[in-house]
Design brief:
The chain is 43% helix and 18% strand. By secondary structure, the chain is α/β, with parallel strands linked by helices. The protein has a 6-stranded mixed sheet. A 6-stranded mixed sheet has the order 6-7-8-9-11-10. The relative contact order is 0.14.
């Protein structure tokens, strides 16, 4: 708990205080002078909402908890952009004063404050719409190996669904309809399928829509970091199996004597007790003469997969930062944080993901499912 307080809770409170002070200074002190004793307690309730929603022992109805989670996550999005907007405003005013363009006390604080609120509201509204309108990203790749009698394979890959109160049953049904409309031969789910609360998946009977997917070569998945954050990896795996989804955990399967699917356990597995095996050990026994498709939730250490003869790697995890300008961070962390990359015979496709985590918005990127046509040598 002390580490959590130091690393997460204290900075969260400080950022909220900064935003609250600016809202009071620029807007509410002009609208409601003398009402500070009302404003600050109300603001405190708002900022505690995201934390309260995550206390599983909170004695409230499920619907109330869902509402708290939803509204709390929206506040996290608004907080993020309020911080950026107020910092830009403060910096602009400081530079203007230094350059003699603005004397102390000049300007119209209420107008500036309302402009900031309008800007943040517009960004959050757009981000909400954008997050709920996924697209289909299409790729055509060639693997220079024969795949038995196959000349072509249609694959739909989806990552980062994050099923829970935000990406709920209705949105899952929409996802399944999108996948089914592509008529894939194979469906691959590249991790973070269920958010931390597997109980929500069970209570809402979310396995049912998945069972409607019946591609020729099955539905396969790997775990992501959020399945491990749930603390119930074995139950998650069992529930996905009930939904007709086979989870590969540091193992491979040979499909129709034509190609291999290799599924790596997530890097987070090291915190789940067993750790994850080196890829060379996972792929022991794989015949490299056949095409090898690897699923690894996090696109780290790409050279390891290239060195093991993987032909196509499918990953997610990055969300491309989910909220601009975080994409500049993911672009620095990952060699490929979104899209297609080729390194010799080795090819990688990283998806921006279907769902969201935390704030239910996307800014600067688009949610997607990935439709891949793989052509094989004859």
């Amino acid at each position: 708990m002390p580490v959590f307080l130091l690393v997460v809770f204290v900075p969260y409170l400080l950022l909220n205080y900064y935003v609250g002070a600016r809202l009071w200074q620029y807007i509410f002190s002009h609208w409601l002078p003398g009402w500070g004793k009302v404003f600050w307690p109300a603001f405190a309730l708002l900022i505690l909402t995201p934390l309260a929603a995550r206390f599983k022992t909170l004695p409230v109805a499920t619907q109330v908890r869902d509402f708290l989670a939803y509204s709390g996550d929206y506040w996290l999005a608004a907080l993020y952009y309020f911080v950026l907007a107020w910092l830009a405003t403060d910096l602009g005013r400081f530079l203007a004063r230094k350059l003699g363009l603005l004397h102390a006390g000049a300007g119209k604080p209420l107008v500036v404050g309302l402009a900031v609120v309008a800007l943040v509201a517009a960004v959050v509204a757009y981000g909400t719409w954008n997050a709920r309108n996924p697209r289909v990203a299409t790729y055509e790749v060639t693997i220079g190996k024969p795949a038995g009698g196959l000349s072509e394979l249609r694959v739909v890959m989806v990552s980062d669904i994050h099923l829970g109160p935000i990406v709920n049953y209705s949105r899952l049904e929409g996802l399944v309809a999108m996948i089914d409309a592509r008529r894939p031969d194979l469906i691959l789910l590249a991790g973070d399928i269920i958010d931390e609360n597997v109980g929500y998946f069970v209570e809402r009977r979310m396995a049912a829509p998945f069972r409607r997917l019946t591609p020729r070569y099955g539905v396969w998945a790997v775990l992501g970091n959020h399945e491990y954050l749930s603390g119930k990896v074995e139950e998650v795996t069992a529930r996905l199996d009930e939904a007709g989804i086979r989870v590969l955990r540091d193992e491979y399967v040979k499909v129709g004597d034509s190609f291999y699917i290799v599924g790596r356990d997530d890097r987070r597995a090291q915190f789940g007790g067993q750790g994850r095996k080196p890829l060379a050990e996972v792929m022991a026994g794989v015949e490299r003469r056949l095409p090898v498709i690897l699923m690894d939730h996090q696109p780290f250490a790409l050279d390891e997969a290239a060195g093991q003869g993987v032909d196509l790697q499918l990953s997610g995890h990055t969300h491309v930062g989910q909220m601009f300008p975080n994409n500049f961070v993911t672009g620095r962390i990952f060699e490929d944080d979104w899209g297609y990359l080729r390194k010799g015979a080795y090819q990688v496709i990283v998806s921006s993901g279907f769902g969201t985590w935390g704030p239910p918005i996307r800014v600067g990127n688009t949610p997607e499912i990935v439709d891949i046509t793989i052509k094989f040598a004859r």
